Amino acid sequence: MARVIVDVMPKPEILDPQGKAVAGALPRLGFTQFASVRQGKRFELEIEGEVTEDVLAAARSAAEQVLSNPIIEDVVAVTVAEDEK
After folding, report:
1. What subcellular compartments does it reside in (predicted)?
2. Which of 79, 67, 55 is nearest to 5 (CA)?
3. CA separation for the pair 5, 33 (Å, rounded)
4. Helix, strand or coil for residue 24?
5. Could you tell me if 3 and 46 are in contact, meaning their C-beta atoms sit under 8 angstroms apart?
6. 23: Cβ–Cβ under 8 A, 6 or more apart, which residues?
7. Contact at 8 Å (CB) between 73 and 20?
8. Helix, strand, coil share of the chain (percent; to 5)
9. What are phi and psi of 38, to 5 degrees?
10. What are the tens digits of pLDDT across the range 40-84?
11. DSSP 6
């Protein structure tokens, strides 16, 4: 089985309280390299057969219509899983 990865992130103008909480915790744990954090979602879609351009287009369409809330989120990537390339 092949896998397509869909990454969804909050739009830049949307507040991200989970990202803020993580950003606040990182320096307390010694991770001072990071200026900010945004938390998103990752979906792994398994398909039978080969990942084609049509499959990627269908995954993007599904991501825009079902997997994300287009009012507050952007679909930032639709890719083939690394082990499938």
Report:
1. Cytoplasm
2. 79
3. 27
4. helix
5. yes
6. 34, 36, 37
7. no
8. 35, 30, 35
9. -125, 135
10. 999 999 999 999 999 999 999 999 999 999 999 999 999 999 875
11. E
Q: Find the mean pLDDT for residues 23-32.
A: 97
CB atoms within 10 A of CB 64: 16
Amino acid at 58: A
CB 45 within 8 A of CB 6: yes
- Asked if pLDDT for residue 85 goes beyond 60, the answer is no
* Ordered structural domains, the chain, with CATH: 2-84 (3.30.1280.10)
- Sheet strands side by side (includes 73-80): 41-47, 2-10, 73-80
Q: Which residue has the tokens 């390299």?
A: 33
User: Which residues are paired to 77 by β-bridges?
Assistant: 7
